[in-house]
Amino acid sequence: MKQRTLMTSAATLAAAGLLLSGCASNSGGGGGGDEFPTEDIRLVVPWAAGGSGDLSARTLAPLLEDELGVSVIVENRPGANGSVGYNWLKEQEPDGYNLSMLGAEVATLQFMDYDIKPADYAFLGKILEGPGAIAVKADSPYETLQDLIDAAKAAPGEITYSSPGVGSVWDNPAQGFQEMAGIELTNVPYDGSAPSIAAAAAGDVDFSIDAMGSQKAQVDGGELRYLAVLADERVEEFPDVPTAAEQGVDLQNASFTGLMAPAGTPDDVVQTLSDAIVAATEDEDYQSVIEQSNLVPVSVPAGEFTEFIQAEEERYGPWIELAKSKQG
C-alpha cells in the first residue's frame, strides 16, 4: 500500500529562515513583463507570528529571494480568521509586489458572512498541507471508525465531537462525515484547535477531527488514539492507522497553506511568482523544516492550485450551510 509521509520530530514552530510570495489570473500590464520583479516584494501572513503559516513564510522567503533576485519582506497582519490580511490584499495594486499567505478559510469565509471570496485573488501555489484525522481518547470504547458510526446510529445526536468552531476547516469534514455515514453528531465548538483537541484527550467529547499533526502530541503521549486518517493513503509514520475510505467512508480533508496575489495580476507575473514558489518548495532545507513541524511539504503551481481552490469552494459551501442550519 502506498503511504504518505508525515515527519515527526520535536515541535519546532519557532526557528527558521525568512519570507514568501505568490498568485494567478488575468493578463495585462502593471509591473509585469520581462522586468518583473524590480522592487522588493511584501508578503503578508494573515495569522499571528509563531504558527506554522508564519514559519513556512519565513522559511520560504530567503529561497524566493534567491529565485527572484529581490527582497521578500514578511509582515504579520492577523485577525478575524485571516480576513484582516485578506482584505488588505484585495485593496493592493495587482502588480505582484504585494502578496499574502492563505489557508483553507479563503474558500469558506464567504459562507460565514465575510466579504472574502476566491474570485478576489490570483492563486500562486500551494506549499504545504496537513492531512486530517479522527482521534478518540486512548481508553475510548471505539476501536474502529465503524464502532463510532454504529454508536452514532444507535443514539442520534448523542455522540459529540470537538471542533475549532462552526464552519471551520475541521468542522466542515465533520459535516461530510455525517452525510456519508448517515449519522447525526453534535458539534462542541472551541476557540481553536489546541483546546478542541485537549477536550477530546480529556474525554469531554467523544472524538476530535483535526490535523493529524496537531493531534500527534496527545497521541504520542498516550492521551489520544487515531481511528482514521482523512487522506487518500496511509501516513508512513502511522502505517497501522487506516484511511477513512478503507473503512467505508470516502472522506478526505487537509489543512493547507499557499500564496496569492490580488485578482487581476498579469499572467506573466503570476507565472514568474509561481515558478519561484515551486522551485523554493522543492528545496531540501524548506522541506525539512516543514516536515519537522508535522506537516507535508508540497509544490503545487498556480494553475493547479487555482482549480483546487475552486473545488474546495464548491465542496465546503453545502457543508457550512448544513452546520449553520444546525445552530438554529
TrEMBL record:
It holds the Pfam family TctC. It comes from the Bacteria. Residues 1-26 form the signal peptide. Keywords: Signal. Belongs to the UPF0065 (bug) family. This is Tripartite tricarboxylate transporter substrate binding protein. The lineage of its organism: Bacteria, Bacillati, Actinomycetota, Actinomycetes, Micrococcales.
